[in-house]
Design a protein that fits this description.
- The chain is an alpha+beta fold and about 290 residues long.
- Among the domains are: about 5-50, Helicase, Ruva Protein, domain 3, CATH 1.10.8.10; about 55-145, Elongation factor Ts, dimerisation domain (Tetrahydropterin Synthase, Chain A, 2-Layer Sandwich), CATH 3.30.479; about 200-240, GTP Cyclohydrolase I, Chain A, domain 1 (Orthogonal Bundle).
- Helix content is about 50%, strand content about 20%.
- It contains eleven helices and eight strands.
- It has helices at about 5-15, 20-30, 35-50, 80-85, 90-105, 110-115, 125-135, 175-190, 205-220, 225-240, 255-270; strands at about 60-65, 70-80, 140-145, 150-155, 165-170, 250, 250-255, 275-280.
- The strands form three sheets. The protein has a three-stranded antiparallel β-sheet with strand order 1-2-3. It has a three-stranded antiparallel β-sheet with strand order 4-5-8, with helices on one face. The protein has a two-stranded antiparallel ribbon with strand order 6-7.
Length: about 290
Amino acid sequence: MEITLDLIKELRNKTGAGINDCKKALQEVEGDIEKAVEHLRKKGAAMAVKRADKAANEGAVKMKIAGDKKTASIIELNCETDFVSKGDEFQNLSDMIAEAAFSAKTNDVEKILEAKTADGLTVKEKIDGFMGKVGEKTEFRRADFLNSPDGFIAGYIHFGSKLGSIVGFKGAYSPDAEKLGNSIAMQVVAMNPMAIKREDIEPSVIEKEKEIYMTLAKNENKPDNIAQTIVNNKIERFFQENCLLEQEYINESSKSIKALIEEFNKSTNAGLEIISMVRYQLGGEKK
């Protein structure tokens, strides 16, 4: 069968693959469009196996928040190079996966990979197709889903899509509350808090910090009572730096996040309370 330009264009429109790849695929299957689509998908899957040992350290962090602000998803999609990650196709693919994760309402990467996208393909098939086209390992690394039925969710993705966060609030929604929430989500991205409040930090972490501070004080030959005071002061500082509510607000350093929320609640009776937060940094630790 003759492989016409129209046939190549049709396959290109269906798959987004390059013209030469489309032509070769059609030649392999004697012009059968559906078989050519399958051939290109298999090429992507084979590429995944071939490049399994490659490092996928670039990529994008994306989020999807519901229209009613009650639910949200955040995802990380990785690739090998910054050049590919900045391309429109990769950015569109990561946005699509954020939508699929949101629709699936789960943190389970395997379930999201099997979820159907708008064109009927699974997320995995879309990723395989993209890999077959660009020739780079592309990996759906992680996802988180938040639900805040008694409040709302705010979020922030930093310019370049390398950092992002979603934060769940309990309390009355309003545009002003959402604006405050988005500012706090930006705070989470900028200051990387370990927990919302000090009670949320594992006791073992605090004990380890105390041990370190005490050792340093003893190495300086401080008396026991002075050493204990130093440890207590440093632990307080640790909480202020690592607990979101105790951190200085990045837009107004004289005010803590807790004070910011209290001030807002006093003027609006919104009763806002932070109940959850997720922060993604490209290549960061999976929690």
